[in-house]
Amino acid sequence: MNRENTIDLDSYRLAQYAVQVPCYICDGGNTFDAELCRHCFAPMALAHQASTDKVRPQMLAAIGPSGAGKTVYLGMLLDMLSRQNGDLQMLARGAFSITLQQITMAALSRCEFPTKTPNEPDRWNWVHCQLRAARRRRPIELMMPDMAGEAILEEVEHPGSYPVIQALLKKCAGVMVLVDAMKLREGSLDEDFFTMKLLSYLIELDGDRKRGWSRRPIAMVFTKADRCEECFLDPAGYAASHASGLMQHCQERFERFRFFAAGVAGSCAYLPTPDGGRVNIPLRIEPRGIVEPFEWLVSQLRP
Amino acid sequence: MTALVYVKKLLRARRFLAELSRTTLFIGCGGAAGLVIGSFSGSALAIGVGAAGLTFAATRAGMEHNLRELATAATRVDRQQPSSAPAVAEGVKPTDIEALVRQMLGKGRYALLLRPEVVPNLNQRQFQKASDALDDAMAMVPAGEVVIGRWGDQDETAANAGFGSPGTVVRVENFYLDRFLVTNRQYQEFVTAGGYEEMAIWDPEIWPGVLDFVDQTGYPGPRDWNRGRFESGKDDHPVVGVSWYEAAAYARWVGKRLPTGAEWEKAGSWPVNLSVGSRPQRRFPWGDSMDRRRANLWGSGPGATDSVYAFGEGISVGDVHQLIGNVWEWTTTTFGNWSYPARDVVLSTPMKTIRGGAFDTYFDNQATCQFQSGEDPVARKHNLGFRCALSVCDLAPAPGDAETPETAEPHEPPRAADEPVAAVVAADEEGACV
């Protein structure tokens, strides 16, 4: 037996569905109510927030091998910029922008490092923030994701496997390349090779002579430098002596690059895990050289 | 320049070897550390003679001659430098006790004058001067119990997660603690007097390593100094860039020692044992809540070391300054003894506990009286300094003082019957008197 019902037709919804909203990162079309881009898994909130801005937000990225300290570096940086009254001040836009800062700070204050960033792009933390610099009249809108090192490696080895990384790095105004200073000192060439691969990937991504990666600013950051003082004293010298291949690569292919050293923990120890392994823990938190690379990078951005 | 540094290093090495081959010159004072009075010259050493447990090198004259020769050579090499030879009490007659006392007081070595072996040779006025100097520079911390190793949140959730610990009760005897951190100016006296060559004040295991404790230019001294001098304008800043061994050697040179972790915590948290099971202990020297205006921490100071006389509002109940902030402080306690009881930390190298946080300490909960961090004893960090301590029982009682610390009846605070008190004298801790 059929009953006749009258159902209101939400015509305005149909109309909204008909209009595709482009993802801010990969430009792929999405419905207006999508939370994540169905093409690259970047949050659609970035696109919605960007559409309300007068200026188009710029993008920066922190890239580097797994375990180089990308999450700690970004989380620490965001917290420092939002707490201090220095030349650079940060204001998060959207609740999702604070998550990275929150999880990093929660872990560090307990003398632990945050857990490994998952490889799935839909679980990455993105940051959209407004940056006020002392020397600029207008604030800068910035977007930064905290990507997994293994995902970056996969994309570098097999371009196209992570569309979000490719799309982001194409559009980025500059990058911070994080390199583990301790591994370099131990003589591990993996860091050196991986970073060179990463830089080659960038050049291949956009080789335009005027706007390509050879003209964009690159901050090379040696992380975990708190455990080797000579790195702090002379980061470029450290690069020359411990990563000569990388140094030469930079000199020949990039016009704007600078070496920095950063550290977050004063000293570290290990904690055994129930499965027989061990995790690294910081014994105290004393950030050093965190803001400088970012400050330089921002000063290199076009207004 | 490089050649000069090399020659100086060579001279230091020769000095070490010369001393090694002879009987070590020091007076054992009954404590864990030998009381070195190597800078007293010639027969003035008689000041300390007479006490039990005294050893005296028979070849003293020969060694001094040797040292003088080397010192002259060093001066010839570089006349611009402050003499790095062991101080030979220049211009002081061996028997001139008055001048010696004056010199010792001038160098902040008053604690040596107050040793039981030395006091009988002083007159009342000299004793009073030394005693006043002690009271000016050091604060008395009364004996008692302190809960050590309590850290993290004390609520149930944190405890379940293995984060946080209720701590252990430790008894601490009467002791004095420096009111201020050791400054560059004070440490300069030690460097200039040739403290880095007086090997008797150094722990034997570090003797080969002492030659490596040099400044930027290769001269003996803290890491960031230049040609054996601290940076101008930083006279009152705490000395940093010194290893644990350098801190311990300085402490012995002035007749003191480094505090134990328990002593440091007692001076800061100032526990008051009112009744059984109740031990109110402060989280910060000024109270229970963080007030960043009272300490040089990240975001509240110049972002570097500051004068030890700054941040006066952060003073403790017992008048000790800057326990929190400015620089971390070395203690004699091995890291791991009292920390992370619920967590079995594996260290890549043995560490000494450091306390108090520094100008770049980021989190409030890591700049408390309870928080402990560790550092490799040979590390020379830009934010790590020290202050010295002194056991009351290592000092001579004042003349006419009927009740000496040893004979005084200690007042035992109430304690629950089943509550154990941990023995504070671990193998590596030289806090208590022997």
Architecture overview:
The complex is a heterodimer of chains A (303) and B (434). By secondary structure, chain A is an alpha/beta fold. Chain A folds into two domains: 11-52; 58-299, Rossmann fold (3-Layer(aba) Sandwich). Chain A contains twelve helices and 13 strands. Chain A has a seven-stranded mixed β-sheet, with helices on both faces. Chain A has a two-stranded antiparallel sheet with strand order 1-2. In chain A, strand 5 and strand 6 (140-146) form a beta hairpin. Chain A is globular and about 80 Å long. The N and C termini of chain A lie far apart (68 Å). In chain B, strands 7-6-5-8 form a four-stranded mixed β-sheet. In chain B, strands 1-4-9 form a three-stranded antiparallel β-sheet. Chain B has a two-stranded antiparallel ribbon with strand order 2-3. By secondary structure, chain B is an alpha+beta fold. Chain B has ten helices and nine strands. The model of chain B is unreliable at 20-90, 154-163 and 402-428 (pLDDT under 50). The relative contact order of chain B is 0.14. Classes of the chains: A alpha/beta (303), B alpha+beta (434). At the A-B interface, strand 11 and strand 13 of A face strand 7 of B.
The pLDDT mean of chain B sits at: 75
> Spatial order of the strands in the main sheet of chain A?
4-5-6-3-7-8-9
Instruction: Specify the number of helices of chain B.
Output: 10
**Which ranges of chain A are low-confidence, i.e. pLDDT below 50, for 5 or more consecutive residues?**
none
Order of helices and strands of chain B: HHHHHEEHEEHHHHEEEEE
Which sheet architecture does the biggest sheet of chain B show? 4 strands, mixed
Averaged pLDDT of chain A: 89
Query: How many discrete domains of chain A?
Result: 2
Task: Tell me the helix content of chain A.
Answer: 25-40%
Q: Give the largest chain-chain interface (CB within 8 Å).
A: A-B, 21 and 29 residues
Side-by-side strand order of the widest sheet of chain B: 7-6-5-8
Number of helices of chain A: 12
Q: In CATH terms, what is the fold-level topology of the largest domain in chain A?
A: Rossmann fold
Number of E strands of chain B: 9
What structural class results from the helix and strand content of chain A?
alpha/beta
Strand content of chain A: 15-25%
- Content of β-strand of chain B: 5-15%
From the N-terminal CA to the C-terminal CA of chain B, the straight-line distance is 47 Å
Shape of chain B: globular
CATH level-1 class of the largest domain in chain A: Alpha Beta
Would you identify the regions of chain B where 5 or more consecutive residues have pLDDT less than 50?
Answer: 20-90, 154-163, 402-428
